[in-house]
Design brief:
With about 80 residues, the chain is of the alpha+beta class. The protein has 4 helices and 2 strands. It has a single domain, classed as Alpha-Beta Plaits (2-Layer Sandwich), CATH 3.30.70.20. It has a two-stranded antiparallel ribbon. The longest helix has 11 residues. The chain is elongated, with a radius of gyration of 13 Å. The site of one iron/sulfur cluster has 15 residues, from α4.
């Protein structure tokens, strides 16, 4: 059981959207286009990373953002900043 939970947690943390809230102009594109219905804009405005099991890591929010606020990071461990 513990091993199973470990796997689930690893899967959950697989995708992360990092936000740079200061650049957000609240256009709402990200929330509109997120296929999982996540209110990405709310996260961006608070400068919070999006680490949610419902995020499928499609990267659409990041590609529709006109200000480059959103960044998709893949992988269980990501220490590299591009
Ligand atoms: S990566 Fe895809 S699923 Fe995740 S928050 Fe962005 S648009 Fe939504
Ligand atoms: S698409 Fe970018 S600028 Fe527009 S609300 Fe989302 S994070 Fe802010």
């Amino acid at each position: 059981m513990a091993a199973y939970l470990g796997i689930v947690q690893r899967f959950k943390s697989r995708f992360r959207i990092t936000t740079n809230g200061g650049q957000c102009i609240s256009c709402g594109n990200c929330s509109t286009y997120c296929e999982m219905g996540i209110d990405v804009r709310a996260y961006a405005q608070k400068g919070q990373d999006i680490v949610r099991s419902s995020c499928v890591g499609c990267g659409i929010c990041s590609s529709v953002c006109p200000r480059g606020v959103l960044n998709l990071e893949n992988g269980p461990v990501s220490t590299r900043k591009i």
